[in-house]
Amino acid sequence: MILVTGATGTIGSHLVRELVRQDELVRAGIHVRPLEFDGVETCSIDFDQPETLPPALEGVDTLFLLSRDVFHEKPMVDAAIEAGVERVVYISSFNAETDTFIVGQLHREVEQYIQDSDMIWTILRPNYLMQNFVTIMGEEIRNEDAFYDSIGDARVSQIDARDVSQVAARVITESGHENQAYELSGPEALSHHQAAEALSEALGRRIQYLELDDETYRRRLLSQGVPEEFAGYLVDVNRRNRKGETDDDKITDSVRNILGREPTTFSQFCLDYAPQLGG
Ligand SMILES: NC(=O)c1ccc[n+]([C@@H]2O[C@H](COP(=O)([O-])OP(=O)(O)OC[C@H]3O[C@@H](n4cnc5c(N)ncnc54)[C@H](OP(=O)(O)O)[C@@H]3O)[C@@H](O)[C@H]2O)c1
Fold first, then answer.
1. Is the pTM of this model over 0.90?
2. Could you identify the atom of ligand 1 that is nearest to the CA of residue 5?
3. What is the mean pLDDT of residues 165-188?
4. Among 48, 66, 202, which Cα is nearest to 129's?
5. Which residues line ligand 1 (CB under 6 A)?
6. CATH 3.40.50.720 is held by the domain 2-126
């Protein structure tokens, strides 16, 4: 039995569909939102309520671990060990091994915690998800034909979450990925200006990338409810991207090696998601 945590999220929802398509025995961990499709065993799981973890893990041999809050992850690993789970596939973040950004460092700590356990592990480190243009920036793209950021002209090799999910399904269902970590990028590194051009072409109207200075971007994040400390980190990572101090433009061959095909381009992503962006 495979337990998928974050089963209703951007990566997890595609993974559950893919595992069901492959007739795998899968249990979807549901927090608040319901699954958008039927025919899957579900269980309630709330990382903030430890008593929900053992029932969710009953009979599970493979845990797909993803959370919105990295502080939830070590307790989930402990619960998995306690339940006798044999293998964990963990969603970390791009360059976690070398990242000086706090999110990367926290993911790296969890990676090491998993690696120090007796469980078999596979670590997936995706770059910035293309779907952020829908989940985070979708509303402004739909309503204002624009999106805002302070990343300047820096280029990022962003990846389609659907590719991340397919890679996850593959490493879960085939052998050869035991105790491996994979850096997952898209096929090209694009600036936000280039992303705006691709969006404009797919949506048939002009979409603008409006560059903000650090302080304006910070205030915008705060007004959107992002906690102060995290807003500071996001501003900082953008500043370091602008200065070329990150490796977020690195292009890796992991998707091609694992899936035997090229990763999805940003242009294709824009066409596929056009209806959700008012196209
Ligand atoms: N976004 C990026 O660009 C990016 C890039 C690299 C790595 N990552 C990593 O990817 C992960 C996020 O993946 P995602 O974008 O697929 O997530 P997501 O779309 O935000 O979905 C989060 C999932 O976790 C569930 N969840 C939230 N709080 C929970 C709780 N207390 N207990 C149990 N489940 C809970 C949510 O369910 P409800 O909706 O019902 O609450 C949802 O199913 C993070 O670890 C992030 O660091 C993200």
1. yes
2. 34
3. 98
4. 66
5. 6-12, 31-33, 45-48, 66-68, 91, 93, 103, 126, 128-129, 132
6. yes
